[in-house]
Amino acid sequence: FLQFVFHTYTTGFTLLNGNGTVKAEEYSLQQKQILYGLGSISYAACIGALPLVFMNRYTLKSSVMQLVVKKLLPAPLLALMSAFTAAVVRSPEFENGIEVMDRNGKVVGVSQKAGEKAVKETALSRAVLFGTAFFLPAVLTYFVERAKFAKTPRALASVRMFMITSVLAGMLPVSFSMFPQCGEIKRADLEPEILSSTEETELFYNRGI
């Protein structure tokens, strides 16, 4: 359930902050994105819960297995699923293309390649943000637990929550600054119809967040 809530929030954020220049005439773009979003949320929640299901199904006594399956594995899965949901929800951007502009802000065409680049950059930044924010605290909490700095389960939970909050707060600006909001793409990397419509060597697009 918590996985479902988390991915619902991040998917809603992605829907609201994607590139708004995508055009589609044959269907309702918003309806398609919502449908994609519901599917990706359900899939990501199930995959994210697999380590816990695995632990409950097969009682693993080894401390190493407990560490890997219960504490270390969920973070990479969360990073992967966060990137997956962002890519699926914003897939119309590389299916239909997004607007690219020259240095003066004049729209010179609609490019699928620019849309693909924007979605890839956003998905990667999302994976780095959530992967680091949950992987690093899990490792630190493990050492705190081994060193017995936290004497009670409540104290350990408080330490873990503090670490997650601190790492997440520190990673937010890093994630948002990995790629510029106004992305650049070389003219040579664009479609032939755009190449023939401008002499600019570099064009720009709205990446979204």
From TrEMBL:
Entry keyword Acetylation:
no
Mind telling me which InterPro entries this protein's record contains? Mtc (IPR004686)
Give the UniProt record's GO annotations in the biological process aspect.
amino acid transport; mitochondrial transmembrane transport
Q: How does it sit in the membrane?
A: Multi-pass membrane protein
User: Tell me, what's a Pfam family for it?
Assistant: SFXNs
Q: Which residues form a coiled coil?
A: none
Q: Subcellular location, in the record's words?
A: Mitochondrion membrane
| Gene Ontology, cellular component aspect | mitochondrial inner membrane
Per its UniProt record, what PANTHER family does this chain match? SIDEROFLEXIN, SIDEROFLEXIN-4
The family annotation for this protein states: Belongs to the sideroflexin family.
Where is this protein chiefly located? Answer: mitochondrion
Which organism encodes this protein? Himantopus himantopus (Black-winged stilt)
Any one Gene Ontology molecular-function term assigned to this protein's record: monoatomic ion transmembrane transporter activity
Key word Transmembrane present = yes
Which residue spans traverse the membrane? 34-55, 67-89, 123-144, 156-179
List UniProt keywords, sorted A-Z.
Amino-acid transport, Membrane, Mitochondrion, Transmembrane, Transmembrane helix, Transport
**Protein's recorded name:** SFXN4 protein
